[in-house]
Amino acid sequence: MKRYSGWAVFREGLRGQTGWSRAWRDPEPKSEYDIVIVGGGGHGLATAYYLAKNHGLKNIAVVEKGWLGGGNVGRNTTIVRSNYALPHSTEFYEHSVKLWENLAHDLNYNVMFSQRGQLGLFHTPAARDAQAKRANTMVMNGIEAELLDTEGVKNLIPHLDYSENARFPILGAVLQRRAGTARHDAVAWGFARGADERGVDILQNCEVQGFLREEGRVTGVETSRGVIRAKKVGVAVAGSTGHVMAMAGIERLPIETHKLQAFVSEPLKPLLDYVVSYGAPGAHFYISQSDKGGMVFGGDLDFYNSYAQRGNLPIVQDVAESAMAIMPCLGRVKLLRHWAGVMDMSMDGTHIMSKTPIDNLYLNAGWCYGGFKATPASGYHFADLIANDRPDALTAPFSLDRFEKGYAIDEKGMGPTPKLH
């Protein structure tokens, strides 16, 4: 496979773009693999990539029921950050940010990671205290954070609503300068290309329809393209986790499936240099500007269980009101399109990365709002779990049995109510 470079782009421009090879193969399934990863989204592809890169494993397949990039990895608002409040989460997402910082070089693929910085606004004295605590937690874990007052925010983004009668008065923000955005499709394509280059078979339009089990352990999967035997199977299918795991015999998991909508506007001239987010009673909103100029934004879950990948008008209204409350200049901007991702919301708002009660079956699920930003670290540590059949120190707190033992990692302090996470 040819490496991408500035010289290659120049050369192909002179040759009419005729010298490019396919980014990844489209192989026929083998009858058996050492490891099968169910789910060809960002997490599944990253897992396969790191299994090959970090652990030297080659006989691996990724099975995806649709096409690469058709699931949640291409249905999000592309935000990358590590401004969490609990030590376990902070350490994990900070490792992910560090992987993001070198990901384009590692994959030899431009994932368009832009460290433009993120501001988390606050609007009350109580919220300021909570955000100051969050910033202190970040600093104590070696992550930079800045607590800004109103003037500090205004110096960075002058066109927010700073008026005295604003619905949500801006008292300040926590700024993480290393946060930013990435191109979601490019992340999937980059990991797919990197995995394929290392011998991984990527099987698109290959839906898992059942699991093979012998003497209490998983020995393969039944798919729409035939039976595939495997020594180990990892599942990373986001909102379809409950459905897929039920086929393996695990019918009760501490997760619910919800949909989360996202929006993009018509292209605008440069307007917003940062990612901006805020949460207040009755409102939740986050926004950034893409490289094409579109304003990419989103808000709350729909608050009912759904597998739909499409939006609805009540959330359009809710998100539009939240946008106008903080950025009135968006009032005449036209909406270009909107969509929904299918979220697997865990009962404590934190992901699950764990061995399961069934031997040779491993689970990566429950990412709530954190799935896209966690993609590199998720693949890195899930690969380590599968390869070594035990969690590493950073993964161990996120085991499935924490719900049985009562060791919840409740990042938002909301208790076992998925829609509040």
Care to describe what's here?
By secondary structure, this protein is an alpha/beta fold. It has 11 helices and 18 strands. The chain has helices at 6-14, 42-55, 87-101, 103-107, 125-140, 150-156, 184-197, 241-247, 313-326, 375-388, 402-405, and strands at 32-38, 60-63, 79-80, 118-122, 146-149, 172-176, 180-181, 201-203, 208-214, 217-223, 226-235, 255-265, 275-280, 283-289, 295-305, 335-346, 352-355, 361-365. Strands 1, 2, 8, 9, 10, 11, 17 and 18 form an 8-stranded mixed β-sheet that branches. A hairpin with a 2-residue loop joins β13 and β14 (283-289). α2 packs across α10 and α3 (87-101) crosses α10. The radius of gyration is 22 Å and the shape is globular. It starts with 5 loop residues before the first helix and ends in a 16-residue tail after the last helix. The mean pLDDT is 95.
Count of DSSP strands: 18
The biggest sheet, with number of strands, parallel, antiparallel or mixed sense and barrel status, is: 8 strands, mixed
Q: From the alpha-carbon coordinates, what is the Rg to the nearest angstrom?
A: 22 Å
Q: Multimeric state of these chains?
A: single chain
User: What class do helices, strands and sheet pairing give?
Assistant: alpha/beta
Distance from first to last alpha carbon: 43 Å
Mean pLDDT: 95
Tally of separate helices: 11
Strand content: 25-35%
Q: Are there runs of 5+ residues with pLDDT below 50, and where?
A: none
Shape summary? globular
Helix share of residues?
25-40%
Order of helices and strands: HEHEEHHEHEHEEHEEEEHEEEEHEEEHH
